[in-house]
Protein backbone atom coordinates (compact mmCIF):
# COMPACT_ATOMS: atom_id res chain seq x y z
CA UNK A 1 0.00 0.00 0.00
CA UNK A 2 2.70 2.50 0.96
CA UNK A 3 4.75 1.72 -2.14
CA UNK A 4 1.71 2.19 -4.38
CA UNK A 5 0.85 5.51 -2.73
CA UNK A 6 4.49 6.60 -2.90
CA UNK A 7 4.60 5.91 -6.64
CA UNK A 8 1.25 7.60 -7.22
CA UNK A 9 1.91 10.82 -5.31
CA UNK A 10 5.68 11.32 -5.07
CA UNK A 11 5.77 13.77 -7.97
CA UNK A 12 3.14 15.84 -6.17
CA UNK A 13 5.22 16.07 -2.99
CA UNK A 14 4.39 12.99 -0.92
CA UNK A 15 7.37 11.65 1.00
CA UNK A 16 7.10 8.15 2.44
CA UNK A 17 9.66 7.18 5.07
CA UNK A 18 9.84 3.76 6.66
CA UNK A 19 11.41 3.46 10.09
CA UNK A 20 12.50 -0.02 11.06
CA UNK A 21 12.55 -0.83 14.76
CA UNK A 22 14.32 -4.15 14.34
CA UNK A 23 16.73 -5.24 17.02
CA UNK A 24 20.43 -5.76 16.27
CA UNK A 25 19.89 -9.44 15.47
CA UNK A 26 17.36 -8.79 12.68
CA UNK A 27 18.26 -5.34 11.36
CA UNK A 28 20.54 -6.94 8.75
CA UNK A 29 17.41 -8.39 7.12
CA UNK A 30 15.84 -4.98 6.42
CA UNK A 31 17.70 -4.36 3.12
CA UNK A 32 16.67 -7.84 1.94
CA UNK A 33 13.03 -7.06 2.81
CA UNK A 34 13.22 -3.74 0.96
CA UNK A 35 14.69 -5.39 -2.13
CA UNK A 36 12.32 -8.37 -2.07
CA UNK A 37 9.22 -6.18 -1.93
CA UNK A 38 10.52 -3.55 -4.39
CA UNK A 39 10.32 -0.70 -1.91
CA UNK A 40 11.62 2.51 -3.46
CA UNK A 41 10.91 4.95 -0.62
CA UNK A 42 13.43 5.66 2.12
CA UNK A 43 13.66 3.05 4.89
CA UNK A 44 15.78 3.89 7.94
CA UNK A 45 17.22 0.91 9.80
CA UNK A 46 19.89 0.09 12.34
CA UNK A 47 19.89 3.04 14.69
CA UNK A 48 18.54 3.44 18.22
CA UNK A 49 17.20 6.79 17.00
CA UNK A 50 14.54 4.78 15.21
CA UNK A 51 13.19 3.61 18.56
CA UNK A 52 13.14 7.19 19.80
CA UNK A 53 11.29 8.28 16.65
CA UNK A 54 8.73 5.51 17.15
CA UNK A 55 8.25 6.61 20.76
CA UNK A 56 7.89 10.26 19.70
CA UNK A 57 4.98 9.32 17.46
CA UNK A 58 3.44 7.05 20.10
CA UNK A 59 3.82 3.99 17.91
CA UNK A 60 1.77 1.43 19.77
CA UNK A 61 2.05 -1.43 17.30
CA UNK A 62 3.75 -2.65 14.18
CA UNK A 63 3.09 -1.25 11.73
CA UNK A 64 2.21 2.23 12.88
CA UNK A 65 1.52 4.75 10.16
CA UNK A 66 1.60 8.50 10.66
CA UNK A 67 0.53 11.10 8.11
CA UNK A 68 2.21 14.47 8.64
CA UNK A 69 1.16 17.57 6.72
CA UNK A 70 3.35 20.21 5.05
CA UNK A 71 3.59 22.16 8.33
CA UNK A 72 4.79 19.12 10.28
CA UNK A 73 1.46 18.51 12.05
CA UNK A 74 0.33 14.92 12.56
CA UNK A 75 -3.02 14.66 10.78
CA UNK A 76 -3.69 10.92 10.98
CA UNK A 77 -2.21 7.87 12.66
CA UNK A 78 -3.03 4.19 12.78
CA UNK A 79 -1.50 1.22 14.54
CA UNK A 80 -1.92 -2.04 12.68
CA UNK A 81 -3.38 -2.73 9.27
CA UNK A 82 -6.84 -2.13 7.86
CA UNK A 83 -8.44 -3.53 4.72
CA UNK A 84 -9.40 -0.10 3.38
CA UNK A 85 -6.04 1.47 4.18
CA UNK A 86 -5.16 2.45 0.59
CA UNK A 87 -8.49 4.19 0.03
CA UNK A 88 -8.42 6.03 3.36
CA UNK A 89 -4.80 7.14 3.01
CA UNK A 90 -5.25 8.05 -0.66
CA UNK A 91 -8.16 10.36 0.16
CA UNK A 92 -6.28 11.98 3.05
CA UNK A 93 -3.13 12.43 0.95
CA UNK A 94 -5.08 14.07 -1.88
CA UNK A 95 -6.68 16.46 0.60
CA UNK A 96 -3.35 17.35 2.23
CA UNK A 97 -1.56 17.84 -1.08
CA UNK A 98 -4.11 20.50 -2.00
CA UNK A 99 -3.54 22.46 1.21
CA UNK A 100 -1.12 25.35 1.29
CA UNK A 101 2.00 25.04 3.42
> Mean pLDDT, rounded to whole units?
90
The proportion of residues forming helix, as a percent range, comes to 25-40%
Largest sheet: 2 strands, parallel
Distance between the termini: 25 Å
Query: Which descriptor suits the 3D outline?
Result: globular
* Order of secondary-structure elements: HEHEHEEH
Radius of gyration based on Cα positions:
14 Å
Brief write-up:
The protein has 101 residues and is an alpha+beta fold.
Compile the SSE list and pairings.
Elements lengths: L1 H8 L7 E3 L10 H7 L5 E3 L3 H9 L7 E5 L5 E6 L5 H14 L3
Helix pairs in contact: 1-4
Main attributes of the structure:
alpha+beta, 4 helices, 4 strands, two-stranded parallel ribbon, 38% helix, 101 residues, 17% strand, two-stranded antiparallel ribbon
Characterization of the model:
This protein is of the alpha+beta class. The chain has four helices and four strands; from the N terminus they run αβαβαββα. The protein has helices at residues 2-9, 30-36, 48-56, 85-98, and strands at 17-19, 42-44, 64-68, 74-79. The strands form two sheets. Strands 1-2 form a two-stranded parallel sheet. It has a two-stranded antiparallel ribbon with strand order 3-4. Helix 1 (2-9) runs parallel beside helix 4 (85-98). The chain is globular. It starts with a helix and ends with a helix.
Amino acid sequence: TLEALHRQYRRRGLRVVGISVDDPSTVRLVPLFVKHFGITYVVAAGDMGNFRAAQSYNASGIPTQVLIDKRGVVRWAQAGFSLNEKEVLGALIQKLLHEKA
